[in-house]
Amino acid sequence: MDEGEGKATASCRVFDLELAAYLEGEEQPELVAHALECSFCYSMLADLERIRSASSELALEEPPRRVWTNIRASLIAERIIRQPEVFWRRWLESWPAWAGLHNPVAVAALGCLMVLGIGLLRVPSVRKSAVDLSDVASAAAAVGPMETSYHAQAASFEPSVKETYQKSLDSLDGEIRECLASVRQEPDNSLAHEYLLAAYQQKANVLQSALNAEGR
Amino acid sequence: MSLEHKLAPKATSETQLIARAQRGDEEAFAALFETHKRRVYSLCLRMTGDVPEAEDLAQEAFLQLFRKIATFRGESAFSTWLHRLVVNVVLMHLRKKGLQQVPLEETDNSQEDAVKREYGDDDRRLLGSIDRLALARAIEQLPPGYRSVFVLHDVEGYEHNEIAQIMNCSVGNSKSQLHKARLKLREALRRERFAAEAHTATDKGR
């Protein structure tokens, strides 16, 4: 039965005052009794209980893929994610700074010295490269299509992600150029071949990582 | 199968994931993100009502989590730790934006927030089943202070004493904000429903 007939009664005003407490779980028998007699207050109570119930069951939203892509790029840049390192780079980084081995030029010079030293010890024959040239050619060939795919997708990357990957790729391209120059100058320099192969493989890893990250 | 048995493998696997993440394992970070991304993003979205902001905040919250993960010792549940961190990130953001979360005055007796007493046929109708999308939209439209308390309490299940602690307000203030938020949501949902019904009636009349 509706006791309102267009006006709020004294009971309705008490209902308004006590409603919040009732919804918080307080016992309010008078409030319930009033709601059963007043359609407006009954409607109010039922609606608020439905809203409360529906709110606890709202569907969870899916974040866009770029959220993880950005997080991953930041974690890599901050070295919180530890990526597998190429053996020779880890070995070189273990040397103290004064040794100058973080400088690619110094590394190349050391490589030349080592090759020369080995060559001197093994005169007259020069050690045959441990790395097969076909391995280097295969690694270089594998990088090509991946690089094409990367450039096709890079436009859709977040700027910070693209920058992170591009820095790595630029650095590796620099290493590849240096190694290629060394190989051209000294075709029998095994260390240069090994470094060249490692640089191509690392570039392939970076490209694969970028392509995987975007596809995830 | 008991609840403990159901939960044990998940807890173990999450513990293992956390240990691997503490060693910098990328797959572990990815798996933790995958497990918690929906809840974190949804919380950010509901509390800000803005998609780009929610993306940025979810990203920031996960980054803070992963930067600190080495310090996680398992005293509390990982999800509780993460959840509290997300709430802090969002509230910090809202404060920086200058949005006062909860008015300093304990009560606000403005007419706007009072229960509307406009009797009529429409007012007596119940909402019936609630359209979840309409509810989500209505939550987004709530004023920021009401929205934060409502989301924390009715969506995320926080208690008023926890909300009061997080938002630096009194328990009474939290309760008051919540009630006003529910009333505002009801009005918004009813308006939307009546507008939709009027639209349908107009279409039928043509």
3D structure, described in words:
The complex is a heterodimer of chains A (216) and B (206). Chain A has 216 residues and is mainly alpha-helical. Chain A has 2 domains: 10-55, no CATH class; 65-215, no CATH class. Chain A contains 9 helices and no strands. In chain A, helix 1 (10-23) crosses helix 2, helix 4 packs across helix 8 and helix 7 packs parallel to helix 9 (190-215). The longest helix of chain A has 27 residues, at 159-185. The two termini of chain A are 59 Å apart. By secondary structure, chain B is mainly α. Chain B has 2 domains: 10-96, Rna Polymerase Sigma Factor, Chain: A; 111-205, Arc Repressor Mutant, subunit A, CATH 1.10.10.10. Chain B contains 9 helices and no strands. Chain B has helices spanning 3-22, 26-48, 51-68, 78-96, 121-124, 132-141, 144-155, 160-167, 171-205. In chain B, helix 1 (3-22) crosses helix 2 (26-48) and helix 8 crosses helix 9 (171-205). Chain B is elongated, with a radius of gyration of 21 Å. Chain B starts with a helix and ends with a helix. At the A-B interface, helix 1, helix 3 and helix 4 of A face helix 2, helix 3, helix 6, helix 7 and helix 9 of B.
Write the layout of secondary structure elements.
The complex is a heterodimer of chains A (about 220) and B (about 210).
Chain A: H1 10-23, H2 29-37, H3 39-55, H4 65-77, H5 87-93, H6 104-121, H7 133-154, H8 159-185, H9 190-215
Chain B: H1 3-22, H2 26-48, H3 51-68, H4 78-96, H5 121-124, H6 132-141, H7 144-155, H8 160-167, H9 171-205
Helix pairs in contact in B: 1-2, 2-3, 2-4, 2-7, 3-4, 6-9, 7-9, 8-9
